[in-house]
Design goal:
Chains A, B: Pfam families: PRA-CH. Chains A, B: Zn(2+) binds at residues 82, 98, 105. Chains A, B: Pathway: Amino-acid biosynthesis; L-histidine biosynthesis; L-histidine from 5-phospho-alpha-D-ribose 1-diphosphate: step 3/9. Chains A, B: It catalyses: 1-(5-phospho-beta-D-ribosyl)-5'-AMP + H2O = 1-(5-phospho-beta-D-ribosyl)-5-[(5-phospho-beta-D-ribosylamino)methylideneamino]imidazole-4-carboxamide. Chains A, B: Keywords: Amino-acid biosynthesis, Cytoplasm, Histidine biosynthesis, Hydrolase, Magnesium, Metal-binding, Zinc. Two copies of one chain form a homodimer. Chain A has a single domain, classed as Phosphoribosyl-AMP cyclohydrolase (Ubiquitin-like (UB roll)), CATH 3.10.20.810. The first copy, chain A, is mainly β and 116 residues long. The radius of gyration of chain A is 15 Å and the shape is globular. Chain A is built from two helices and seven strands; from the N terminus they run H-E-E-H-E-E-E-E-E. Chain A starts with 5 loop residues before the first helix and ends with a strand. In chain A, the strands form two sheets. Chain A has a four-stranded mixed sheet. In chain A, strands 3-4 form a two-stranded antiparallel ribbon. Strand 7 (109-112) of chain A pairs antiparallel with strand 5 (73-80) of chain B, so a sheet runs across the interface.
Amino acid sequence: MNELDPAVAERLKRTPDGLVAAIAQQRGTGEVLMMAWMDDEALHRTLTTRKGTYYSRSRGTHWVKGETSGHTQHVHEVRLDCDGDTLLLVVDQEGAACHTGDHTCFDADVLLAPES
Amino acid sequence: MNELDPAVAERLKRTPDGLVAAIAQQRGTGEVLMMAWMDDEALHRTLTTRKGTYYSRSRGTHWVKGETSGHTQHVHEVRLDCDGDTLLLVVDQEGAACHTGDHTCFDADVLLAPES
């Protein structure tokens, strides 16, 4: 099978440019690591290879997480949300999830701190 | 102050319709509860009231989580990701986070199950 299962494809609610949001969460700790985008092919490749595979809007290409950095994502579980526009991936992240070298993409910029 | 802090506003990378993605995560357990959208006003209201406030693309209006259902979100922390297009909210969710009555919006549809 070279294409996304039609039974899955028909449940997706895509942006005008054909994408759904994908949240990667570390298995065990529950940390939210990053958010990226997937088109049907990226999702198909993620489901069949268990390697986190996304679509870059800026570059217009697919990318496999860690392919250049070595910071791969092994995908344990993929869930689709109630309205079909967001995926949740439960992963084992190798090394830093963020291209900046941070552990997660949400480490650097706190807009609102917890109440003291 | 009635508007989003310009120092924050200039760090946001919005969709063509002016929105950023917002992931709500339960404090303590780390569960990912839901993903929704925010414009500048929704973010400003969230930061100043600590009540999860979003923008509905389909209805074209702001909504405060739990305003009709009672399933409110108290926001402890807000973080912006490395490329400025996604927010992570650490919240205390009252009751079900999903409008279907499920605990999270990711409970119902498993596309890929963990390896057995």
